[in-house]
Amino acid sequence: MIKKRDSKPIRISPPQTDEQIASEKSLKEWLATEETVSGFLFERYPEEGIDKPYHSVRNCTFRNQTFSDCQFRSMQLSDVRFVNCDLSNISLAESALHRTEFISCKLVGTNLSETTLNHVLFSDCNASYINLSMSKTNQVRFANSQLLNGSFNNCRLTSTAFESCELTESDFSHTSLRGIDLRTSRINGISLNINDLRGAIIGSLQAMDLLPLLGVIIKD
């Protein structure tokens, strides 16, 4: 049922960022007048209280920014980079992310449910309790990140990698892990169904953690 095989590397296209100018205004101020914000570097103003669905951000970098009490439902992000930002507990539900990077970001409790992610990188992030339920991922890499108690239920994972991640107590129920390589990540206590596990790539020690899912009782 569980086969160990070599997995193909996941190639992520980085954001294609053209020349960007330092913004003299906050993102909130731009979104008040523009449906699409493009070509800026944001690193001056904290962002709070934004509630702007159905807007777009393109070719932008956010550096050392804190987002609080923000709702970006159905946002379009394309060629965007977040570096050392705090996006905890904000909502990007039902959004579309394309060539987007989160580098050394805090994403605790961030809501990305029902979101489409294409060529997206999460690297060195604290994303405990992140919500990606009912999302679709393609060419997505989670690397060296905390995903403790994350919600990945009812997802469609295509060409998705978890590299050296903390997935303890995460929920993968009703999400097929076929072809997903979990060998370098911690998966103890994850929630899933037996059928979800078919075709997953795991290590021998990890198999011991998953035996309770089979109803097996281990005694010496």
Automatic annotation (TrEMBL):
<dbReference type="InterPro" id="IPR052949">
    <property type="entry name" value="PA_immunity-related"/>
</dbReference>
<protein>
    <submittedName>
        <fullName>Uncharacterized protein YjbI with pentapeptide repeats</fullName>
    </submittedName>
</protein>
<dbReference type="Pfam" id="PF00805">
    <property type="entry name" value="Pentapeptide"/>
</dbReference>
<dbReference type="InterPro" id="IPR001646">
    <property type="entry name" value="5peptide_repeat"/>
</dbReference>
<dbReference type="Pfam" id="PF13599">
    <property type="entry name" value="Pentapeptide_4"/>
</dbReference>
